[in-house]
Design goal:
about 100 residues; alpha/beta; Rossmann fold; 3-stranded parallel beta sheet
């Protein structure tokens, strides 16, 4: 895995899995786990979220992940941010309300 971005001073890494981006079948947990193990900066997951459960799975499977990112599910009203935050909190996942 090429970690030049961190070696050159990146303060965080956004991992966008092209294999899962836009598919809405969930985040690339395997790839994200490898990146989290390889770097010592915050990691943000991107690509694949299609439901609230995908976020819950992300944070349960990789408790050290710093954030989960999504776009279309919010833009098209498939998931309400308020509801996502409520569900995360109910699943004991730290979230800013």
């Amino acid at each position: 895995m090429d970690l030049r971005c961190v070696m050159l001073g990146a303060g965080e890494v956004v991992v966008n899995s092209i294999d899962t981006d836009g598919v809405k079948n969930g985040f690339d947990i395997e790839l994200l786990r490898l990146v989290c193990e390889a770097v010592n900066v915050p990691v943000i997951a991107s690509g694949g979220a299609g439901s609230i459960n995908h976020f819950i799975e992300l944070f349960k499977e990789i408790p050290d992940i710093d954030a989960g990112l999504a776009a279309s599910i919010f833009h098209f009203g498939e998931v309400e941010i308020k509801e996502l935050k409520k569900e995360l909190k109910e699943n004991d996942i730290r979230v800013r309300l």
